[in-house]
Amino acid sequence: MKKAAKILCIIALVIGIIWAVVGFFGSWVGGAVISAGQEVFAEDSQGANSTMENSVNVMLKFIGSFVIVIIGGVLGIIGSDKKPSKVKPLIFGVLTLICGIILFPLHNYVAAFLYLVAGLLLVLGGLTTKTQNKNESKDNKKLILTGIVLGIVIVVVGFCLTQNNSVTENQEITIANSDNTTDIINTEQSASATPNNEDFQDFIQKFTSDKNFQLSRIKFPLSSIKSKDEWEFLDANVIFEGTKILGSGLNEQGEEVGYEFSGEFIKKSDSKYFYSFYNSDFGETIFTFSKVEGQWMLTDDLDEDGECYR
What we know:
Elements: H1 2-40, H2 45-79, H3 87-103, H4 109-128, H5 136-193, H6 200-207, H7 211-216, E1 242-250, E2 256-269, E3 272-279, E4 283-292, E5 295-300
Antiparallel strand pairs: 1-2, 2-3, 3-4, 4-5
Helix pairs in contact: 1-2, 1-4, 2-3, 2-4, 2-5, 3-4, 3-5
């Protein structure tokens, strides 16, 4: 059993060291690349800093894994000494088991499993040993004391490493929950920005001042304008309340005079308004504004369905 335990400890030592080293440098390089990409391409400094912090935490975890792997390997090899003894393999077997248990939360799974098996073999080997050196009684006290001290040190180190890992994961969960909460709040705020009771006057003010917003609130095709390619921006000189002098021309006496236009909103219902743009020479255009899924939209530029808007 001791020979098998020794072989398993050597294999676990090699695999564990390779795993820890590769993981350390992989986290280092990967974190740096991802962080640089977030900083340069996404211009997300906060995300880049968070990525680097996570990478550092993972690197520290691999450093701890590296240390525990070496300790477990050395203890397992020492405990598998060929000299017949009951106490030595028991003590070092238990210590090897502890190292294996600690390696699981550090994600060094292969080495952890091998150390568990090797530790159990050493414990069984010590329990089944029948012969014991007569001169071993004094050494047993030293071994027991050494085992207790090493056990305490390993447990304390392992506790610190696993606690750090647990805190890091809790922080990530907290940040994730915070991000989700922020997303929910932003979604609610976004929803409240376009409520079912969107104020018509606020809508008109933005409609006549923002071209992109205006185009997003027109339900093409209209009666006279079929697509946005034919559309001309309706500013506050076209949609207004009252009268305005727009443009100019010659009257019968040959004098240059301005054209008087009138603008009037007529409320048909809580979900429909008509707007009349009128000039005695050019006639009248009727715009229909209707509420569609809680948002005001321009739905026609003539009297809708031929009905009287007044």
